[in-house]
Amino acid sequence: MKLFRNMSQSEVVNWKKGAVLGFYTYMLLLFINQTYSLFSVREPLSSTFVFWTGLLVAFGYQYLLDLRAKRKDK
User: Fold this and answer.
1) pLDDT digit string (tens) for 21-72?
2) 3-state helix, strand, coil in the chain (%, to 5)
3) Of 23, 29, 5, nearest to 62 (Cα)?
4) What gap in Å lies between CA 29 and CA 65, rounded to an integer?
5) Count of H helices and E strands in the chain?
6) Which residues have CB under 8 Å from 74's CB, separation 6+?
7) Dihedral sign for Cα atoms in the order 24, 28, 31, 37
8) Angle at which helices 9-39 and 47-73 cross, to 10°
9) Radius of gyration (Cα) for the chain, nearest Å?
10) Which 8-state DSSP code applies to residue 3?
11) Which of 11, 23, 27, 42 is the right S-S partner for 7, CB 3.0 to 4.6 Å?
12) Which residues fall within 8 angstroms of residue 36, CB to CB, at 6 or more apart?
């Protein structure tokens, strides 16, 4: 019994694009957080917010790309 199905080639490409965008989102949010904390005593963004934002961007962008590809195929 197979628990997960294999991803198609377009889904793999879309996931890579989503992962890259999620990574850049992490870098931007961490840069903002670190820069602000250098000039102030506190950090403006919580680590929970940074974590969930990066994940949502990565998976959300992949989902949107997959939807667009499916609509284009029809």
Assistant:
1) 999 999 999 999 999 999 998 889 999 999 999 999 999 999 999 999 999 8
2) 80, 0, 20
3) 23
4) 23
5) 2, 0
6) none
7) negative
8) 150
9) 17
10) S
11) 11
12) 43, 44
Per-residue model confidence (pLDDT) at position 71 = 92
CA distance 10 to 1: 25
Q: Are 17 and 57 in contact (CB under 8 A)?
A: no
Instruction: Please give the single-letter amino acid code of residue 54.
Output: G
**DSSP structure string for the chain:** --SSPPPPHHHHHHHHHHHHHHHHHHHHHHHHHHHHHHHSSS-SS-HHHHHHHHHHHHHHHHHHHHHHHHHHH-
The token pair that represents 26 in the structure block: 């992490």
17 neighbors 72 (Cβ within 8 angstroms): no
Amino acid at 73: D
